[in-house]
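Name: Helix-turn-helix domain-containing protein
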Amino acid sequence: MQETWPYPFPDDTEWTYWHRKETFQLAEDTYDKWVMFAVEAGSFRYRIQRSEGTAEAGDVVVCPPRVRFEREVIEPLSFAFISFNLRTDDVSRLPQGRVRIADAARLHHDLARLKALPLHEAADWGPYGAHYGADIWLQCLEAAGKREETSPPSDAEMDTAVAWLRTHVGAKSALGEAAARGGLTPVQFTRRFQRAYGIAPQQFLLSLRIAEARKLLLTTDWTLDRIALSCGYENGFSLSRSFMRATGMRPSRYREHHRL
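Structure predicted for Helix-turn-helix domain-containing protein:
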Protein backbone atom coordinates (compact mmCIF):
# COMPACT_ATOMS: atom_id res chain seq x y z
CA MET A 1 0.00 0.00 0.00
CA GLN A 2 1.30 3.47 -0.89
CA GLU A 3 2.22 5.55 2.16
CA THR A 4 0.37 8.87 2.40
CA TRP A 5 1.93 12.15 3.48
CA PRO A 6 0.78 12.68 7.10
CA TYR A 7 0.88 16.50 7.08
CA PRO A 8 -1.36 19.04 5.31
CA PHE A 9 0.13 20.87 2.34
CA PRO A 10 0.05 24.69 2.17
CA ASP A 11 -2.28 26.42 -0.26
CA ASP A 12 -3.30 30.01 -0.98
CA THR A 13 0.34 30.94 -0.31
CA GLU A 14 1.36 34.60 -0.30
CA TRP A 15 4.73 36.12 0.49
CA THR A 16 6.55 39.39 1.03
CA TYR A 17 10.26 39.93 1.52
CA TRP A 18 11.45 42.65 3.89
CA HIS A 19 15.01 43.98 3.80
CA ARG A 20 16.64 45.40 6.95
CA LYS A 21 13.38 46.27 8.66
CA GLU A 22 14.19 48.30 11.79
CA THR A 23 10.83 48.01 13.54
CA PHE A 24 7.49 46.29 13.15
CA GLN A 25 4.56 48.58 12.47
CA LEU A 26 2.57 46.66 15.09
CA ALA A 27 4.10 45.23 18.27
CA GLU A 28 1.56 42.40 18.08
CA ASP A 29 -0.83 41.06 15.48
CA THR A 30 -3.09 38.13 14.63
CA TYR A 31 -3.59 36.59 11.21
CA ASP A 32 -6.39 34.66 9.52
CA LYS A 33 -3.84 32.29 7.97
CA TRP A 34 -0.75 30.44 9.11
CA VAL A 35 2.34 32.64 8.87
CA MET A 36 6.09 32.06 8.83
CA PHE A 37 8.79 34.63 9.47
CA ALA A 38 11.85 33.07 7.78
CA VAL A 39 14.91 35.06 8.90
CA GLU A 40 17.81 35.68 6.55
CA ALA A 41 19.63 38.30 8.67
CA GLY A 42 19.15 40.25 11.90
CA SER A 43 17.11 39.15 14.90
CA PHE A 44 13.83 39.77 16.69
CA ARG A 45 12.16 38.87 19.95
CA TYR A 46 8.85 37.01 19.74
CA ARG A 47 6.12 35.52 21.88
CA ILE A 48 3.44 33.12 20.63
CA GLN A 49 1.41 31.59 23.44
CA ARG A 50 3.97 29.68 25.58
CA SER A 51 6.69 29.91 22.98
CA GLU A 52 8.98 32.93 23.29
CA GLY A 53 12.57 33.83 22.66
CA THR A 54 14.85 35.36 20.07
CA ALA A 55 14.90 34.38 16.39
CA GLU A 56 17.89 35.07 14.17
CA ALA A 57 19.37 34.04 10.83
CA GLY A 58 18.50 30.42 10.08
CA ASP A 59 15.33 30.45 12.18
CA VAL A 60 11.71 30.31 11.09
CA VAL A 61 9.01 31.49 13.48
CA VAL A 62 5.64 29.83 12.83
CA CYS A 63 2.34 31.26 14.09
CA PRO A 64 -1.06 29.56 13.68
CA PRO A 65 -4.11 31.55 12.61
CA ARG A 66 -6.02 33.67 15.14
CA VAL A 67 -3.19 33.47 17.70
CA ARG A 68 -1.55 36.60 19.09
CA PHE A 69 1.94 37.13 17.69
CA GLU A 70 4.06 39.55 19.77
CA ARG A 71 7.34 40.68 18.25
CA GLU A 72 10.05 43.34 18.39
CA VAL A 73 13.08 43.87 16.18
CA ILE A 74 16.43 43.62 17.98
CA GLU A 75 18.75 43.97 14.97
CA PRO A 76 17.64 45.22 11.51
CA LEU A 77 15.69 42.31 10.11
CA SER A 78 15.74 40.77 6.63
CA PHE A 79 13.11 38.05 6.31
CA ALA A 80 10.39 36.49 4.20
CA PHE A 81 6.84 36.81 5.49
CA ILE A 82 4.90 33.80 4.18
CA SER A 83 1.19 33.20 4.80
CA PHE A 84 -0.82 30.14 3.81
CA ASN A 85 -3.82 27.97 4.63
CA LEU A 86 -3.74 24.38 5.90
CA ARG A 87 -6.75 22.14 5.46
CA THR A 88 -6.69 20.48 8.86
CA ASP A 89 -8.16 20.89 12.31
CA ASP A 90 -5.44 18.85 14.02
CA VAL A 91 -2.54 21.18 14.84
CA SER A 92 -1.07 19.11 17.67
CA ARG A 93 1.80 17.77 15.53
CA LEU A 94 2.47 20.98 13.62
CA PRO A 95 5.36 23.33 14.48
CA GLN A 96 4.69 26.55 16.34
CA GLY A 97 7.10 29.20 17.55
CA ARG A 98 10.80 29.17 16.67
CA VAL A 99 12.12 26.39 14.45
CA ARG A 100 15.86 26.11 13.85
CA ILE A 101 16.48 24.92 10.30
CA ALA A 102 19.24 22.32 10.02
CA ASP A 103 20.09 22.86 6.34
CA ALA A 104 21.07 26.53 6.28
CA ALA A 105 22.06 26.42 2.60
CA ARG A 106 18.66 25.07 1.56
CA LEU A 107 16.83 27.76 3.55
CA HIS A 108 19.10 30.47 2.15
CA HIS A 109 18.40 29.25 -1.40
CA ASP A 110 14.62 29.38 -0.87
CA LEU A 111 14.86 32.88 0.62
CA ALA A 112 17.06 34.09 -2.22
CA ARG A 113 14.53 32.83 -4.76
CA LEU A 114 11.59 34.45 -2.96
CA LYS A 115 13.53 37.71 -2.70
CA ALA A 116 14.23 37.66 -6.45
CA LEU A 117 10.60 37.13 -7.53
CA PRO A 118 9.00 40.35 -8.81
CA LEU A 119 6.12 41.23 -6.51
CA HIS A 120 4.32 43.26 -9.15
CA GLU A 121 3.97 40.04 -11.19
CA ALA A 122 2.88 37.88 -8.27
CA ALA A 123 0.01 36.41 -10.28
CA ASP A 124 2.47 35.05 -12.86
CA TRP A 125 5.11 34.00 -10.36
CA GLY A 126 2.72 32.62 -7.75
CA PRO A 127 3.45 28.93 -8.43
CA TYR A 128 7.17 29.53 -7.95
CA GLY A 129 6.69 31.49 -4.73
CA ALA A 130 4.31 28.83 -3.44
CA HIS A 131 6.93 26.18 -4.18
CA TYR A 132 9.67 27.91 -2.17
CA GLY A 133 7.24 28.75 0.64
CA ALA A 134 6.12 25.11 0.78
CA ASP A 135 9.74 23.95 0.93
CA ILE A 136 10.40 26.22 3.92
CA TRP A 137 7.29 24.73 5.57
CA LEU A 138 8.61 21.25 4.83
CA GLN A 139 11.91 22.13 6.51
CA CYS A 140 9.97 23.29 9.58
CA LEU A 141 8.11 19.97 9.66
CA GLU A 142 11.37 18.04 9.38
CA ALA A 143 13.02 20.05 12.16
CA ALA A 144 9.96 19.82 14.42
CA GLY A 145 9.78 16.07 13.89
CA LYS A 146 13.37 15.63 15.07
CA ARG A 147 12.81 17.97 18.02
CA GLU A 148 9.68 16.08 19.07
CA GLU A 149 11.74 12.93 19.57
CA THR A 150 14.09 14.61 22.05
CA SER A 151 12.22 17.63 23.45
CA PRO A 152 11.91 17.74 27.25
CA PRO A 153 8.60 18.23 29.04
CA SER A 154 7.50 21.75 29.88
CA ASP A 155 8.94 23.24 33.04
CA ALA A 156 6.33 24.98 35.21
CA GLU A 157 9.01 26.48 37.49
CA MET A 158 10.71 28.13 34.53
CA ASP A 159 7.33 29.46 33.36
CA THR A 160 6.97 31.05 36.80
CA ALA A 161 10.48 32.47 36.56
CA VAL A 162 9.71 34.03 33.18
CA ALA A 163 6.56 35.65 34.54
CA TRP A 164 8.55 37.06 37.47
CA LEU A 165 11.29 38.42 35.21
CA ARG A 166 8.73 40.20 33.06
CA THR A 167 7.55 42.20 36.06
CA HIS A 168 11.01 42.79 37.58
CA VAL A 169 13.03 43.96 34.58
CA GLY A 170 14.58 46.72 36.66
CA ALA A 171 15.97 44.46 39.39
CA LYS A 172 19.78 44.69 39.22
CA SER A 173 20.24 41.02 40.18
CA ALA A 174 17.07 39.79 38.49
CA LEU A 175 18.48 36.45 37.35
CA GLY A 176 20.00 35.69 40.74
CA GLU A 177 16.70 36.47 42.45
CA ALA A 178 14.75 34.36 39.95
CA ALA A 179 17.08 31.43 40.58
CA ALA A 180 16.87 31.82 44.36
CA ARG A 181 13.07 31.94 44.26
CA GLY A 182 13.16 28.47 42.70
CA GLY A 183 15.82 27.17 45.10
CA LEU A 184 18.36 26.85 42.29
CA THR A 185 21.96 27.87 41.89
CA PRO A 186 22.70 30.23 38.98
CA VAL A 187 24.21 27.35 37.00
CA GLN A 188 21.19 25.10 37.59
CA PHE A 189 18.84 27.92 36.67
CA THR A 190 20.71 28.65 33.43
CA ARG A 191 20.66 25.00 32.37
CA ARG A 192 16.96 24.54 33.08
CA PHE A 193 16.00 27.84 31.43
CA GLN A 194 18.03 27.02 28.34
CA ARG A 195 16.49 23.56 28.16
CA ALA A 196 12.94 24.89 28.54
CA TYR A 197 13.12 27.86 26.17
CA GLY A 198 16.09 27.30 23.89
CA ILE A 199 17.62 30.62 24.91
CA ALA A 200 19.99 31.64 27.71
CA PRO A 201 18.30 33.55 30.55
CA GLN A 202 20.87 36.35 30.16
CA GLN A 203 19.83 36.83 26.54
CA PHE A 204 16.15 36.67 27.44
CA LEU A 205 16.55 39.31 30.17
CA LEU A 206 18.54 41.50 27.79
CA SER A 207 15.69 41.41 25.28
CA LEU A 208 13.24 42.41 28.02
CA ARG A 209 15.44 45.30 29.16
CA ILE A 210 16.03 46.62 25.65
CA ALA A 211 12.29 46.39 24.95
CA GLU A 212 11.55 48.34 28.15
CA ALA A 213 14.18 50.95 27.29
CA ARG A 214 12.67 51.40 23.84
CA LYS A 215 9.22 51.87 25.32
CA LEU A 216 10.43 54.46 27.84
CA LEU A 217 12.44 56.33 25.21
CA LEU A 218 9.31 56.78 23.12
CA THR A 219 6.69 57.31 25.84
CA THR A 220 8.50 59.47 28.42
CA ASP A 221 10.80 62.48 28.62
CA TRP A 222 13.01 60.76 31.18
CA THR A 223 16.76 61.20 31.08
CA LEU A 224 18.85 58.28 29.95
CA ASP A 225 20.12 57.73 33.50
CA ARG A 226 16.57 57.46 34.84
CA ILE A 227 15.58 55.03 32.08
CA ALA A 228 18.71 53.00 32.78
CA LEU A 229 17.83 52.59 36.46
CA SER A 230 14.30 51.48 35.52
CA CYS A 231 15.75 48.84 33.19
CA GLY A 232 18.29 47.34 35.59
CA TYR A 233 21.40 49.25 34.44
CA GLU A 234 23.73 51.18 36.71
CA ASN A 235 23.76 54.32 34.57
CA GLY A 236 23.00 55.75 31.17
CA PHE A 237 26.44 54.85 29.81
CA SER A 238 25.89 51.13 30.52
CA LEU A 239 22.44 51.23 28.94
CA SER A 240 23.73 53.14 25.90
CA ARG A 241 26.48 50.58 25.31
CA SER A 242 24.06 47.64 25.60
CA PHE A 243 21.42 49.41 23.49
CA MET A 244 23.97 50.13 20.77
CA ARG A 245 25.04 46.47 20.59
CA ALA A 246 21.44 45.26 20.42
CA THR A 247 19.95 47.77 17.98
CA GLY A 248 22.85 49.31 16.09
CA MET A 249 21.96 52.85 17.21
CA ARG A 250 22.33 55.02 20.28
CA PRO A 251 19.28 55.60 22.51
CA SER A 252 19.20 59.31 21.63
CA ARG A 253 19.09 58.56 17.92
CA TYR A 254 16.44 55.90 18.45
CA ARG A 255 14.26 58.40 20.34
CA GLU A 256 14.76 61.07 17.69
CA HIS A 257 14.17 58.72 14.77
CA HIS A 258 11.08 56.86 16.04
CA ARG A 259 9.28 59.35 18.24
CA LEU A 260 6.38 61.22 16.65
